[in-house]
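Retro notes, structure queue

What went well: the backlog is down to a handful. What didn't: a couple of records were mislabeled last round, so from now on we paste the full input next to the output in the thread. Example, using Acetyltransferase (GNAT) family protein from Friedmanniella luteola:
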Amino acid sequence: MPYVRIQPDDHEAVGAAAEILEASRRLDDPTAPEVVRERYAGWLRYGWDLHPEEQFLLVPDGGGAPVGVLAVELPHRDNRHLVWAQITVRPDARRRGHGTAMAAEVLRRTREAGRTTIWMGCAADDAAAAAFLAGTGFHYASPDARRRQRLADVDPAEIARLRAGAEAAASDYELVRLTPPVPEELLAEIAVVAESINDAPMGDLTWEREVYDADLVRDIETAREGRGDRLYRVLARHRGTGVLGGHTMMVTDPVRPTWAFQGDTAVARGHRGHRLGLLLKIEMMAWLAEVEPQVQLVETWNQADNTHMIAVNEALGYRLDRVFHMYERQLDPAAQEQPAGELASV
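Corresponding output:
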């Protein structure tokens, strides 16, 4: 079966892929944001850091409508042993071996790139997907939890109480609101703080600490701008030394104006114990209410064992929406590729 690379300017391919992804979302993850063609094309063009993953349409032998979308990402700054992959089969074309074919293609591309580790994920309550991954040689390695904050349900008095306590604990810090572009002189400082996210749990996944530098901070910002996002960042700066102690990011989407995404919140190791994570998030909530009052729902993700940040989020009104499991497969570089016929069909 041929794989057709999906280019962001190929309107027909983008539309076909978006239709498959949206049909699958409605069936497999109905509370996730709608797949919008414009947003999907932006992701294909910019990725999260100007190095977008490759995505392909799976077209049956002999032609016809595409039956699946395969996404393959090879990290380039770090974790060069790793491949991230996502397999999506059109709902009305499942149980015909298309997922099996795409799994074999992932293995082929991984070996071709000289990499040894593959990550793929699925919802924790999706027994069919879990069985497929197990049948293709993957093992469960880490849980992720998606939470939602419905702003209409948040108690302002409780947030004010939490803020007062956090401000008392963080009296040595000032908060700085920042929108793109980040001043050149701040890029390296923000990278140091952002790197602290590496301290969050990663379960049993085989990974290396991600490398953050000034270029990555700028590239993420540029990619967000290219995709049409609005990016907000709050910094915590120590009053005595001027050193950044923490940051948090929020993203809003003009295409889905009532929805926002709470990104990384990180506090540098030497600045922990002052409730900075809580204070940064509360400040971001206040700012969002001022500049994006139409937002109704905020989504965030945590590794499900990250009990500290989950407790912060729960205090702010986030509630569990769904748990997802990441699976991993290790490849022996010297081994031959497993024939597709030996893989579990999907």
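Agreed that this is the format going forward. Reviewer comment attached to the example: The first helix runs from residue 11 to 28.
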